[in-house]
Design a protein that fits this description.
alpha/beta; Rossmann fold; Helicase, Ruva Protein, domain 3; 5-stranded parallel β-sheet; two-stranded antiparallel ribbon; 48% helix
């Protein structure tokens, strides 16, 4: 399993230059059966990262461009009358794919945004009173532009909480940017990718992640972090029970990616910014700044 993970990371790093940590966090999010939110300015590789992961994982992939006139039916699907059968037939929307790229999700209205809520949480959608299961695995990568840009509708906290992780890509460093300027077209590189981690193996890995051990001492440290976010003035909003579970799930996945069968404090620390930054709403929106006081003040028990 470790060889497959390393092959995937190496292939992804050849397409997305200089973003090893962000790529690792994205795979960690998927192994933990979570959804990923990428917030950054246009043009830094958000869509390229989603497309790269889909190719390397061999998943059915669909991009949904969120715009101000997007309707829930454009995402979920709708029933259309069939005159031959004299009845309505359901036509599935793009949500019925294994990996969804919700591109520029905060450019659509709250009504369209909310169409994803049940799908992300329950892995199913209910339309006209009938429930339809979604494919397995099911993974949403949403991108959004910074909220100060024109034409954005900020995601409400209830929907932000559905994303296991939020990451930023940022500008490449000078060396990576030079390689980007002198290298191949990114789309050509994506087209040449082959599956590095098949969906069947991915499912086994996701199950194995749930078996990674968390000791009593590790749970004490996790609870101390959660308690700090709820009691400290450094954090305007504390982690909810769902946020605490998300932190532990992500830490288990991080440990699994390192080839360990037990979680250590460094695993919690590695994923804390991505998991907690968008939940505690601190640090001026920067995730690393948001969790810096937590890492500095909560002792490892």
């Amino acid at each position: 399993m470790q060889n497959a993970i390393n092959r995937l990371l190496d292939s992804a790093n050849r397409v997305i230059l200089g973003k090893q940590r962000q790529i690792r966090l994205a795979l960690c999010c998927l192994l933990a059966r979570g959804h990923l939110l990428i917030e950054d300015i246009p043009g830094v590789g958000k869509t390229t990262l989603a497309h790269t992961l889909a190719r390397l994982l061999g998943l059915d992939y669909q991009r949904i461009q969120f715009t101000s006139d997007l309707l829930p039916a454009d995402i979920l699907g709708s029933s259309v009358f069939d005159p031959k059968q004299h009845q309505f037939t359901f036509h599935p929307g793009p949500i019925f794919n294994q990996m969804i790229l919700a591109d520029e999700i905060n450019r659509s209205t709250p009504k369209a945004q909310s169409a994803l809520l049940e799908a992300m949480e329950e892995r199913q959608v209910t339309i006209e009173g009938k429930t339809y299961p979604l494919p397995r695995p099911f993974f949403v990568i949403a991108t959004q532009n910074p909220s100060h840009q024109i034409g954005t509708f900020p995601l409400p906290e209830s929907q932000l909480d559905r994303f296991l992780m939020r990451i930023e890509l940022g500008y490449p460093d000078p060396e990576a940017e030079r390689r980007l300027l002198t290298g191949q077209n990114r789309q050509h590189l994506i087209d040449s990718l082959t599956v590095a981690l098949a969906p069947e193996l991915l499912g086994r890995m996701q199950e194995a992640v749930t078996q990674v051990h968390a000791s009593e001492a590790l749970l004490d440290y996790c609870q101390a972090i959660i308690r700090y976010t709820r009691e400290s003035p450094d954090c305007p909003a504390g982690l909810s029970p769902r946020g605490g579970l998300a932190l532990l799930r992500a830490a288990r996945a991080w440990a699994f990616m390192d080839g360990r069968n037990a979680v250590i404090p460094e695993d919690l620390q590695a994923v804390l910014a991505a998991v907690a930054g968008h939940r505690i709403r601190s640090g001026g929106g920067n995730a690393e700044a948001a969790v810096a006081p937590i890492l500095a003040k909560v002792p490892v028990l």
